Amino acid sequence: MADTIRAADSFYTDEHPLKTLREARMNKIKKFVKTSIIGGILVLLPVVILIAAFNWVFRLITNWIQPITNLVIRNNGMPELIGDVLVVVLISLICFFVGSLLSTSLGKWLHKHFDSYLIQLAPGYKLIKEIVGQFFGDSSTSPFSNGEVAKVNIFGGNSKTSVTALVTSRHPDGSFTVFVPTGPNPTSGNMYHVLAEQVELFPELAVEDMMRTIIACGAGSAVLFKQEDAQVKQEDTQTK
After folding, report:
1. 3 assigned to some structural domain
2. How confident is the model at residue 191 (pLDDT cuts 50, 70, 90)?
3. In angstroms, what CA-CA distances link 196 with 25, 29, 40, 174, 178?
4. Whole-model pTM?
5. Of 29, 59, 76, 118, which is most buried by a Cβ count within 10 Å?
6. What are the Cα distances from residue 81, in Å, to 40, 63, 84?
7. Are the C-beta atoms of residues 231 and 212 closer than 8 Å to each other?
8. Rounded distance between C-alpha atoms, residue 17 and residue 23, angstroms
9. Does residue 239 or residue 122 have the better pLDDT?
10. Considering the domain boundaries, does residue 89 fall inside one?
């Protein structure tokens, strides 16, 4: 009897083979369940966020155009969704017509005088116009489409620390103004005015590729700059 009790105690206290096997199976099941749930979240969460974003944009636009939609459906008796679609199409056609007009000499002349009038009438118009130009890729003013990718030693001196940055302006004395975006939101960050020796330019890198590393909080930076280094070495080999 005593031997039976000791054997039972050793089963629960010692590393018994059956106990070890059971724990290994449980760990495998836990790992499988955890991996499956995380994998499902990684697949479904971006889809859910995208749907939510589209829903938010759709509701925002329909709220803006609701007065015009009401006029359309009141006179024709059509469903509200079809009325929204028709109004969006109508607004798109108006934007296309205005854009086409601006490509002509008359359109440019009208736009110039219209802008100067609005700037005098509403001082905030110029700021709003510049912000819209930044986000919609006006290459003449947007650093996100016209800037250069760079590594910048913002601390200067013998510091080995550098940051990924976007050159937004070059100055007559050779210095630079750079924008250092913060991850994961690349539209926010800090501006620095630095000397030329603090800046290492990467003109072959696309701004979009650099922004992906910012959104990923630095992930992919090694591949990004390694690709540029490989291109430079290849060009040096060809010139030799």
Report:
1. no
2. very high
3. 60, 57, 48, 6, 11
4. 0.51
5. 118
6. 33, 12, 5
7. no
8. 10
9. 122
10. yes
